[in-house]
Fold this protein.
Amino acid sequence: MKKSELFFTFLLIPIDILMILVAFILAYKFRLYFEYVPATYFEPFREYLKFIVMLMPGWIIVFILTDLYSIIERRSAINEFGKIVVAVSASIALVMAWIFLSQMNFFSRLIIAFAWALAIITVTSGRLFIRAIRRWLFRYGVGVHRVIVLGHNSSTRPVIEEIKANKKLGYKIVKVIDKDAIDKLDTIVKRTPCDEIIVADSTLPENLTAKVLEFCRSSSIGFKMTPNLFLVRSSHVSIEELAGVPILEFKRSPLDGWGKIIKRIVDIVGSLLLIIIFSPIMLLVALLIKITSKGPVLYKQERVGADNKNFKFMKFRSMKFEYCTGEDYGGKKAEKVFKKLEKRNEADGPVFKIKDDPRVTTFGKFIRKTSLDELPQFFNALKGELSLIGPRPPIPTEVEQYTKWQRKRLGVKPGITGLWQVSGRSELSFDDWVRLDAYYIENWSLWLDLQIFLKTIMVVLRGKGAY
């Protein structure tokens, strides 16, 4: 355990206490300005402050119980925000219960509402401040985790590139090894000390993975790995007993039953709101496409949806009309050009991706980079052909090449964005896409959808991996 991690974890406690006090003080001050809402009782500020200080131990206990002081867990800012909302809400509920049961004359019920909202804001701000300090120190090597990456394949490359490019992750690669070096791990770690080993090769046999895991446990080194499809699926199991024999039951996806109904309601409401919000931008993009190139504004391509049902996938046209493949577009000329470009395919598996595609217009490059070309897909979501969040929608020729395992991603409605979008976009291998989709299907929740949606906004703003 890094000393800096222990220090910053303990530092969170006084920071949280300070932020909670600030929230209650501001709530008291704000309540004074709401004179048009009559208050039954106001005690002097000093008495109010004494009452709030008396509550602090209870707040900290609730924060501990909601894992907000976990030393080992490295959580994202979005995940931490969700826990803060839960912890503050639970703490406020306890305060209200205390006031009710003790039948005390509290200062003002409106203060509670103010304190709830302000505490979420102040505690989040305090933790973002600590997070910013840590990331700043990472640049100078303070608190950085030294990492050995195991693997040499398509899964390994994005991991290595992301760690090298993104200093704020707090990782530093000290060595990259392959499976032949597993028997020499003891010698390697002595020569090149590390804090964690990341197994980035998802094809590594179980016996070798177990060997690395056992070495990490015995050496007090952190262990991480990219899972294969079976491990992703097995994360959603329960254990029962039958005739004295333990039986593993693979649970159905949460997207079955009520989950499917709730997700559809969210898709309808969400897509309607997004269409209204982005309608001025969509009109502007449509006008500029019409001005800068010949042909229709929209490009409709056949994609495969849930249960192998095909639908017309809509995007703003980013290619020159004569190079767009499909019956209503460039025809044989477009197919001929595409066949030549297939040799330059930069993606593995049944997916076609190339940078600097010569078929794309100048304005088309811009709307692809900014993801503006994808805005018409909100209409697909409204019609029920797409979901706002889900697996990437494939084209029929890709599906024809799917293995039995890969077809699992067709079991649910595809999405405009998903884990594949926020985890590397075009840099990911096809196997990584399938693993992410399998994880999403097995572990779906509204909270997971919200996290993906918020992360998508950040990815789109950075323009990372889009071409």
Remarks:
- The longest helix spans residues 258-292.
- Residues 258-462 form one domain.
- Strands lie at 145-150, 171-177, 196-199, 222-225, 237-242, 245-250, 298-304, 310-316, 387-389, 415-417.
